Structure prediction request, 484 residues.
Amino acid sequence: MKKIYFLLLFIIISPFLQAQYSSYDVGRWSLGLNVGGSFQQADVSNDFFGLGYGATLEYHLLRKSYSYFGVSLRGRYLNTRTYGQDYTLHSGLISNDAINGVNSPTIDYSNSPIFLNNRTLVNEFSLELMLKWNKWYQEKGVLFYLYLGGGGTEFETSTNQLDAFGNVYDYSVININTGKSNTLSQIETLNDGSYESALTNKDAKTFVFTPTVGLGLGFRVVPGFDIALEHKISVPQTDFYDGQMNAPTTSFIKDVYHYTSLGFIFTIVRNNFKENSETFTPTVIPSPTVTPTPITTTPTYTLKKPEITILKPTISSYNYPDCSIEIVAKIEQVVSKNDIEFFQNGQKVLPQYFTYNSPEFKANVSLKEGINTFKITAKNTSASTTKEFTFTCKDENYITICHSKSNGQKEVISIKSSEWEMHQAHGDTKGKCPEEKKMITICHNVPGQSGVTQTIDIPESEWLIHKSHGDIMGKCYTVPKKQI
Prediction:
C-alpha cells in the first residue's frame, strides 16, 4: 500500500512542475532504466554483490543552453538485494528472535557457535534533487552530476541458519584459524544457501525513511539518448537492515547499502514553449450582440530553409607555410550554434572551435598539404542545408641553379622561386652547372703548311681526331740552329 502512495504522490506533483517550465531543446521529461549491483555496510559483513535494477523519471527544472549548471527533480524506483556473511564467530547477544529461541525453541543459537549471515530484498522509492554541469553536456556531450534526496525503503531480511532437514548448523566443525578465505569457503560448504528463515524483530519496522546521495557520469550517444554510470548511497533509518543489532545507537548512519549501476536515459516529451513560460488563461467576455464573431485562423509560420553563404576567404589556394585561415560564413534561418555542424576533411569539428553570432559563422582552421574539404550543415525545424567547399595548401615551387661559391667554384643547389632574383644578382645561373673540360697540350701539324707545327691546347675529348691527323702529345720540339 505504501508503494502506491509514493507513486501517486509523484504523479500528482509532476503536472504542476510541467505548468511552470518547458523545454528549449529536446524536452524536459526523461525516462531512465538501469541495472547494477548492490552491497551493504552493516553489522554483518558484506558477502558479494546482489543484482539490482530500477527506473527513474526525471523533470529538468533548469536546463538553459547557456547555463553552466542545470537542476532536475527525479523520482526513482529501485529493486535490489544485498548479501552478508560474517567470517568470525559471533560472540555477543543475538538480537533477532528468529534464531535466539524466542520464536521457536528448536532454532536457538544463544549457546551455540554461529556465523551470522543475511539476504535483504529491497524496494526503494525516492525523490532526488540533481545538480548538473550543464555546460559540459551542451559542448562535449559529457555530463557530471550530483544528487541528494530521500524516500522510503521496504526491505525483507532472511538468513540461512537451518539445513535441508530444518536443523541448526553445527558451526563447531569450522576451523577458524585458517584465514578469512578458507573460513568462508568452509561456511559455504556447510550452508545450503536457502535463506529459509525470515529475520523478524517485533520492534523493528520493515518500511523506513531513507536519505540518499550519489553521483553520476553521463555520455550523450545521440540527441535524446544518454548512458550514465552512477553510484548511490542509501542510509535507511534502521539498525535491523541486516537483521542484527549489535548495540543500540542513536546515530543517523546505522546500516547502509550501495548501488552501482549503468543507466539508459531517453527523452520522452518534446514541446515548443519558451523557457520558464507560465500558463495564462484569458478572461472570457460575453459577446454584446447575438451576431456570432467570425473566427480568424492564425496562419502557421514555417521557417524558411537555412541559407549558407561563404564570405571569407575569397581565394582558394595558399602556399605553405601560410596555410592558417579564417572561414567566415553567413548562415540564416537557424537559432543557435547547436543547429550547425562543421566538418573538415570528413571529421566533425567540435562546437567550441567555431562561433556563431547570428548570422555570422567564424572558424579558424589550419590547412593540411593538398586539397582540404569543408562542409557546413545548418538545420531548423523545417529543413536542412549543406554547403561544401575546398581550400588548397601547397608547397612553394623550387628551382635548380648553378651557384658560384666564394672560392670561385660552382655547385648545383635548389632554391625557392622567390629567392631567384637575389641569386641572379650575384651571377648565378638557372639549371645545372656546365661540366669543366679537361685540356691537354699537343704538337699540332698546321694544315696546308707541310712540316710546320705549333704547340696548342685542346679538350681531351678531341685528342683522337688530332691523333688521326698525325699530331703528337706534348709540346712541339724545336731543333736548335747549331744542330742544323
